[in-house]
Amino acid sequence: MVDAGRGVASQLAKAGVRMPEVDVIVVTHHHFDHIGGLGDLIMSAWNIGRSGPIRVVGPPGTREVISALLEGVYWRDVNYRIVEERAQGHSMEPPMEMLEIDELLSATVDLGRGVELTVGEVEHGSAALNLSVEEWATIGCRIEFGGRSIAISGDAVAGKQLHELAKDADLLVMCAYVAASEIDNEGTRFLTEHVLAGAPQAAQVAQDASVARLALTHIREKTDSDVQRMCAELADIFDGEVIAGVDMMIIEVP
Ligand SMILES: [Zn+2]
Q1: How far is the CA of 230 from the centre of ligand 1 (A)?
Q2: Which of 162, 166, 182, 235 could form a disulfide linkage to 209, CB 3.0–4.6 angstroms apart?
Q3: 20 pLDDT band (50/70/90 cuts)?
Q4: pLDDT, tens digit, for every residue of 141-173?
């Protein structure tokens, strides 16, 4: 699973995925809209009876975030459930024990069962805002399985690492906050250059990396027809197929 924004536990349930089945969570960065459901997800999996380890891969600070949730925000709940189980003659390890947390900026990880995960640091504001890696780091990722490849930008603007993650991918899932016509003021211009790509930038990344299909996500609220227009405009930049992402969408990678 890549990122755990608000409502992720209920969205997973709607998608028919049982929470204890989640083996790997990639946390791309620590903006609240990407980790708002993380504590809920881990606590739910633990409470429902997750047995094996859950691997969490994220940039520096990920362990601190998770520890703050499980050993801070939820410590009373964790303690309650452990005491409750003990009262019934069962033992229960705290949820922190079932996690294997890897803080990585650039690495390839074998996830087993033929799945390979590559992460790379992408640019999401740290350079423009002069933030250190400890203060702010964002990763994008690439998942390879059975000769197929999916790249996920995380929140990002174009850059060398993102290009390498996306190179020749069958599918690139990329943030595309605004359409070209919305980049009409200094604030949005700054944002799309340094923090979060707009649709034209996402299309350019896809074109430069020769990806087959581009799925846009993280789209600023607009009407369906404006979303369709935004995607259609990208044909001038990107030769491949553009998909406007919506919640619960399933994209098959042939
Ligand atoms: Zn973000």
Answers
A1: 21
A2: 166
A3: confident
A4: 999 999 999 999 999 999 999 999 999 999 999
**b/e sequence 1-12, b meaning 16+ C-beta within 10 Å:** bbbbeeebbebb
- What distance in angstroms lies between residue 178's CA and the mean position of ligand 1's atoms? 14
- Per-residue pLDDT at 49: 85
Q: Which helix (DSSP H) or strand (DSSP E) does residue 15 occupy?
A: none
Closest CA to 52 of 88, 7, 97, 10: 97
| DSSP element (H, E) containing 244 | strand 241-244
Residue 142 and residue 59 share a domain: no
Helical (H) or strand (E) element with 124: none
Looking at the structure, do residues 114 and 234 belong to the same domain, yes or no? yes
Domain assignment of residue 145, given as a range: 106-254
- Ligand 1 center from residue 42 Cα (angstroms): 21
> From ligand 1's centre to the CA of 9, what distance in Å?
20
Tell me the two tokens of residue 134: 């400890």
